């Protein structure tokens, strides 16, 4: 293997002789002129030595005694033993393998189809290895050089492919499986050039896609988006959100359906498995994000989830100047913030018709609906024995269809209570997010469903106040939670919110209300429900007049200083007082009498003079606003009394508890 050569013979297309026959033809030989160089392509019916390679290094220990004289130029042509010829012609080797624009390369590709191996045609003057080496070595030498040449040709093609990929190309050229990418990188596939027309980009050939048209759904939906296909899932490079432990959320397509792809690091496969289990158990509910499927590669697990418009945190941020920008990592925080603001601006156009707060600062019916959706999702999880444990605005997703709907997501650290078990015990694994955990989570105590109710209280406060937190700024929240230093000043103008949130944030987990109780709290009642409650309460307490010592009536009248503040006639218009005085005498310091006025005017609204109707406003919203603006604490104070005394009565079941959510 100290010397090896490649020779080529060029046959005309009209010559039907075989390659071996051409070599045996005495007239089919080398030109005899010394020092002549070929100009490619070769003339018809000619052959020549194309390249000679000589090296002593590889087998020096074995062949050193018989080594030829040292060659200083590896590409130079050395003398060969040829019985009938003493002249050798060579090609200019420096340009042969380095000039991709030369005509030599395509001609050489043609010539390699008719390579001549020395030692097989000695008699006819064919190319020859050193005569002292066996023919087997000559065949090995030729094979090595041939493989090298083929490798070089494939490298040229690969380079052209890389250059062409810089221009817009078909999606299939980019969506290659991770396994194939790895092979190319390691060189195992270096001799393979894919035909872009034979692969659909998802691991199926074009013939398979033709017979199974549903396999083309992904490519037809995502068009020219950059990304790659993993099984049934197409994962784009468009990032939606970031999570902890390397988790990110990307846009994607699953079986033709737009999805959000949650990519988890495979080393955290237990988190992914747990989330899948809990999603399968719970995602049939309208307020739980749907799970469609899972795929994986050697590094990541990909969850295909229902794609939503934005998170609850994003929605509040869009419409509030007081909410906090999410935290960013130290890596390019400015760029991340810019991208986040750009994304919010793009979503504002989608949500431009959404109104979250009334002019008086109260949450709008739409915001109350979204807040109640969150509670509804928790009711469902808790009924299944699942504790979410990481409830926060960023884990509540908003989808806009005919109207907005909120859905719980990100249950990677959720826990499933088995059987009748009510808690996870001490030192439960997994951590929630800073600032949104109950004190028992922070102190690694016994965790029950109540940890979700604490987080819910923080989320409701966040929504009502436009992005504020009941325990202060980001870096002091956990300390204030442990010390039970909540500040509800910002929601004091909504007594129902103060009542509910204060109970949800109770440091004693056993005193926090259950999810189903929260779902029916007056904070979420609309005007019609509020007026219905006042009417039913008035009818109920009227019956107490016949009893001299009614605990219910005593309790109701005892709230007058808080519920009324002063005599209620002082907050009414003279025209309205004249109207109600025509039919009955009322005690202006009595809660029961005020409820009776509300009940009577509601039942006989159409009979009222136009002047009085204009004072009260339209039913139900205007009528409710009239009394709520004058007696803001009336509803919650009456509710607490009726809850204590009448919650088991059938006519009040719809206000206090229900089996259907």
Automatic annotation (TrEMBL):
<keyword id="KW-0418">Kinase</keyword>
<keyword id="KW-0808">Transferase</keyword>
<protein>
    <submittedName>
        <fullName>Serine/threonine-protein kinase/endoribonuclease IRE1a</fullName>
    </submittedName>
</protein>
């Amino acid at each position: 293997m100290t010397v090896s050569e490649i020779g080529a013979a060029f046959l005309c297309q009209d010559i039907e002789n075989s390659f071996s026959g051409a070599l045996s033809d005495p007239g089919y030989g080398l030109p005899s002129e010394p020092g002549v160089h070929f100009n490619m392509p070769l003339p018809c019916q000619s052959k020549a030595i194309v390249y000679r390679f000589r090296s002593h290094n590889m087998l020096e220990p074995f062949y050193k005694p018989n080594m030829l004289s040292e060659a200083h130029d590896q590409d130079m042509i050395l003398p060969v033993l040829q019985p009938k010829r003493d002249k050798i012609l060579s090609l200019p080797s420096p340009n042969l393998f380095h000039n991709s624009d030369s005509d030599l390369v395509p001609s050489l590709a043609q010539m390699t189809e008719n390579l001549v191996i020395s030692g097989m045609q000695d008699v006819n003057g064919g190319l020859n290895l050193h005569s002292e080496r066996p023919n087997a070595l000559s065949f090995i030498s030729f094979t090595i050089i041939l493989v090298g040449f083929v490798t070089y040709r494939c490298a040229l093609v690969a380079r052209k492919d890389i250059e062409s990929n810089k221009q817009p190309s078909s999606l299939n050229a980019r969506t290659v499986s991770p396994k194939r990418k790895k092979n190319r990188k390691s060189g195992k596939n270096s001799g393979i050039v894919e035909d872009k027309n034979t692969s659909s980009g998802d691991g199926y050939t074009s013939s398979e896609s033709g017979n199974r048209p549903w396999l083309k759904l992904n490519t037809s939906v995502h068009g020219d988006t950059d990304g790659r296909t993993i099984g049934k899932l197409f994962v784009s490079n468009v990032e939606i959100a970031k999570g902890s432990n390397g988790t990110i959320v990307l846009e994607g397509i699953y079986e033709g359906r737009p999805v959000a792809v949650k990519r988890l690091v495979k080393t955290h496969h237990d988190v992914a498995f747990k989330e899948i289990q809990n999603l399968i158990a719970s995602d049939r509910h309208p307020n739980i994000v749907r799970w469609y499927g899972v795929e994986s590669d050697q590094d990541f697990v990909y969850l295909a989830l229902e794609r939503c418009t934005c998170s609850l945190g994003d929605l509040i941020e869009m419409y509030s100047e007081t909410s906090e920008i999410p935290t960013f990592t130290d890596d390019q925080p400015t760029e991340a913030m810019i991208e986040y603001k750009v994304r919010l601006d793009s979503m504002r156009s989608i949500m431009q018709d959404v109104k979250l707060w009334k002019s008086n600062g109260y949450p709008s019916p739409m915001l109350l609906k979204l807040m109640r959706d969150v509670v509804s999702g928790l009711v469902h999880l808790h009924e299944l024995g699942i504790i979410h444990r990481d409830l926060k605005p960023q884990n509540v997703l908003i989808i806009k269809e005919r109207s907005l709907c909120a859905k719980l997501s990100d249950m990677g650290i959720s826990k499933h209570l088995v059987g009748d078990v009510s808690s996870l015990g001490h030192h439960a694994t997994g951590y929630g997010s800073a600032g949104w955990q109950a004190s028992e989570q922070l102190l690694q105590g016994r965790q029950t469903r109540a940890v979700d109710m604490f987080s819910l209280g923080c989320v409701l406060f966040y929504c009502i106040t436009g992005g504020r937190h009941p325990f202060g700024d980001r870096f002091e929240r956990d300390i204030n939670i442990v010390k039970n230093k909540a500040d509800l000043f910002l929601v004091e103008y909504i007594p129902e919110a103060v009542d509910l949130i204060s109970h949800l944030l109770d440091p004693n987990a056993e005193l926090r209300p259950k999810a189903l109780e929260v779902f029916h709290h007056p904070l979420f009642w609309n005007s019609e429900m509020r007026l219905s409650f006042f009417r039913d309460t008035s009818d109920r307490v009227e019956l107490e007049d016949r009893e001299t010592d009614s605990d219910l009536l005593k309790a109701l009248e005892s709230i007058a200083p808080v519920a009324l503040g002063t005599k209620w006639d002082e907050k009414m218009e003279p025209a309205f007082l004249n109207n109600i005085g025509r039919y009955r005498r009322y005690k202006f310091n009595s809660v029961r009498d005020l409820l009776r006025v509300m009940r009577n005017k509601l039942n006989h609204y159409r009979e009222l003079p136009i002047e009085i109707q204009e004072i009260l406003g339209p039913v139900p919203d205007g009528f409710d606003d009239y009394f709520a603006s004058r007696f803001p604490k009336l509803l919650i104070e009456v509710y607490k009394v009726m809850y204590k005394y009448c919650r088991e009565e059938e006519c009040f079941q719809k206000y206090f508890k229900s089996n259907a959510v």
